[in-house]
Amino acid sequence: MSTSFFRDLSTRTPTRVWINNPTFDEIGLALANGAVGCTTNPGYGGGLLRRAPEEIRPIIADCVRLTDDDAAAADLVQMRLVSRIVERFRPLYDDSAGQYGYVSIQGRPDADDDPTLIVAQARAGHAIGPNATPKLPATAAGLDALEVIVADGCPVIVTEVFSLAQLVEACERYVQTTIRTGVRPPFFISPITGIFGDHLKTVAKKHNLPVAREDMELVGLVLGRECQQLVEERSYPVRLLCGGARISLDLLGMVGAAVHVTVNWSTFAEVLADPKPFDTGYEKPIDPVVLDRLASAFPDVKKAFALRGLTVDEFESFGPVQHFRNNFLEGWTAVRGAIAETRAELALQGSRQSSKEGSRRAR
Question: Residue 299: beta bridge partners?
């Protein structure tokens, strides 16, 4: 498998690629193929339970032994999983003087409406290492937490961005905080591409809407491009980190722009197998009629592309945000379930051991 595309990407374009939710082997593969960072989310552990249970099960067992609180154990599991990535990307962070090598960590999805808890978990995550980067939701609670974390001088990623209104609010909060404090840490914002399309597909199926799958798959790419144009027009001091890729076009359609894109290893492999990946790119237009059709069919699309389409209080309940959050909750719940199972197994083993020791003493 050739790595020429990713070598060329870094020399021919300002576009950079991150790896998302990797297994241990995929960390090395991504670094070898030019990944400059790594994203994780609250569903990371649940994904590993499906894809690489041999990696996460021992970590769960260790964490269960450290605390009787299942929620705290889940936090520890996430920290352990991210710590091993932070260590692998630390040389890149050091060698680039902090330009690259960031690894994101995001807190509990079942408590992401509490800015105080978001701040506490963000600070705990960043304590893993200087390149460990808190990831905060673009919701009212998450944006309140953003102001505190920026004032701390901590690198930060704002995620769950599915609208121009969220992008603008997050950037304005960052700018105002830097003006007030004089502190300006690295700042990333993640428009979520493929997940937006997944949400539209779910809505279309539920309401039997005659919308082309190809149109729905383009909505996130169009959003990423609109976000980048807005960032350039307003000179916001932010780097876009487009995420949630579902198809290779979610990456390839941004190539040439001064953005970072995070993809799963499966997308790395798909792009590497493409004989002409540079045939697409940021400058290749998408028919504007596609967005018109989507906006006519889906109120959420119309809201997403209007600068004032949502208020801050509406961010959390916005359809694609909820769709993404439900994915996180599913993965987080799977880890909590594995923690409970492991705790029960260890208790049973302890009971059997005690029974054996009692039998020996009785003899």
Answer: none
Segments of the chain assigned E as strands: 16-20, 37-39, 102-105, 132-137, 156-161, 187-191, 239-242, 260-263
**Phi and psi dihedrals of 41, rounded to 5?**
-140, 175
Q: 312 by DSSP, 3-state: which?
A: helix
**In this model, does residue 1 exceed pLDDT 50?**
no
Arithmetic mean of pLDDT, 92-120: 96
The encoded tokens of residue 107 equal: 């807190």
- Evaluate if residue 351 carries a pLDDT over 60: yes
Could you write out the DSSP letters of every residue in 152-204? TT--EEEEEE-SHHHHHHHHHHHHHHHHHH-----EEEEEB-HHHHHHHHHHH
First vs last C-alpha separation in the chain = 64
Q: Which two tokens stand for residue 331?
A: 């993965």
Beta bridge partner(s), residue 261: 17, 242
Q: List Cα–Cα distances, 152 to 52, 95, 148, 185, 186, in angstroms.
A: 35, 24, 6, 9, 12
Residue 122 and residue 78: Cα distance in Å, rounded? 12
Per the CB < 8 A criterion, the answer to whether 316 and 326 are in contact is no
One of 3.30.420.40, 1.25.40.10, 3.30.1390.10, 3.20.20.70 is the CATH number of 4-362, namely 3.20.20.70
Burial class, 311, CB count within 10 angstroms (exposed 0-12 / middle 13-18 / buried 19+): exposed
- Dist CA 169 CA 160 (whole Å): 13
- Looking from the CA of 351 toward its CB, the CA atoms found within 13 Å total 6
Q: How far apart are CA 321 and CA 140, in angstroms?
A: 12
pLDDT score recorded for residue 363: 59
Domain boundaries, the chain: 4-362
SS3 category, 160: strand
Beta bridge partners of 39: 20
